[in-house]
Amino acid sequence: MDDLFSLNGKVAVVTGASRGLGQAIAVGYAKHGAKLVVSDVLDVSETIKMVEEAGGEAVGMNVDVSSREQVKGMFNAAEERFGGVDILVNNAGILRSAPAEGLHDEDWDKVIQVNLKSQFIAAQEVFPFLKKRGGGRIINVASIAGLLAFNQAIPYNASKGGSVQLTRSLAFEWAQHNILVNAICPGIFLTGMTNDMLEQESFKEMVKAKVPMGRHAVPEELVGAAIYLASKAGSYTNGHAMVVDGGWTCHL
Ligand SMILES: NC(=O)c1ccc[n+]([C@@H]2O[C@H](COP(=O)([O-])OP(=O)(O)OC[C@H]3O[C@@H](n4cnc5c(N)ncnc54)[C@H](O)[C@@H]3O)[C@@H](O)[C@H]2O)c1
Question: Which position among 21, 60, 88, 169 has the lowest Cβ density within 10 Å, counted as fewest Cβ atoms?
């Protein structure tokens, strides 16, 4: 049967995959038939185990997405082990919060480097691999902070806004190579990034009040969007910033 959401025969590389959204996407892709390269600065063995338990296969790598050499190594490994690359999920990201007037240069640089420049570096480095396969998909994990601003998170907001524009720019340039580039803009998901915030009553109340669905999400609730954008189902979706936020950004 022609399965719109199948990833059988596809090879996917997911960054920041040791936990949270990257881990959920990697496991979801494995369940839909993809072979995985999962990378992170942290240990990825738990994700590999989860992929294998789901019946899939994964290579794990220690990769800092700020390093072009290490990023290149990720795609070489995918080619050596699985014969090529079809899908890149630029998921690794960090959050630093501070009021604008007290923000340090190092925090600005670090957040822009990890959240934005790394997505461009990885896209550049995966380009020849995707071309060799006759095309592919790039999915940049941005945020609703790329569309609207969170308080006291200037470099984060700027990096995610940049990610959305990077997505549109690459989608425009690389459609001719059959490379489709899209972004996902999650709302609030319970992960290592948000765990501390979601333990605060005031933050929980804010989420309840702002999100029409009245709750935050769990990582598995992002997987469907990531599969759609990587599969045949998304074959005419290009340059899109897909919001998955329980309705937060649909109202004033
Ligand atoms: N959780 C949310 O509510 C939410 C909302 C919107 C967007 N996002 C985005 O989703 C992505 C995943 O975040 P998450 O919520 O799963 O957070 P997380 O902190 O649980 O996971 C992020 C992962 O990225 C890794 N990472 C950080 N710096 C890295 C680097 N230099 N090189 C390689 N890996 C690195 C971390 O080690 C971690 O495993 C991020 O881009 C984040 O900005 C998250």
Answer: 169
pLDDT over 90 at 2, yes or no? no
Q: State CA 67 to chain mean position distance.
A: 17
How sure is the predictor about 38, in pLDDT bands with cuts at 50, 70 and 90? very high
Residue 31 in this model has a pLDDT that exceeds 90? yes
- Residue 1 pLDDT > 90: no
Looking at every residue in the chain, the average pLDDT score rounds to 97
Ligand 1 atom with the smallest distance to the CA of 21 is 16
| 29 counts as catalytic | no
CA separation (Å) from 103 to 91, 142, 148, 193? Answer: 24, 21, 19, 19
152: DSSP letter: T
Residues with CB under 6 A from ligand 1: 15-16, 18-22, 40-42, 63-66, 91-94, 114, 141, 143, 186, 188-189, 191-194
Separation between Cα atoms, residue 27 and residue 36, nearest integer Å: 9
Backbone angles phi, psi at 10, to 5 degrees: -95, 150
Return d(Cα 236, Cα 228) in angstroms, integer. Answer: 11
Per-domain residue ranges for the chain? 11-191+218-244
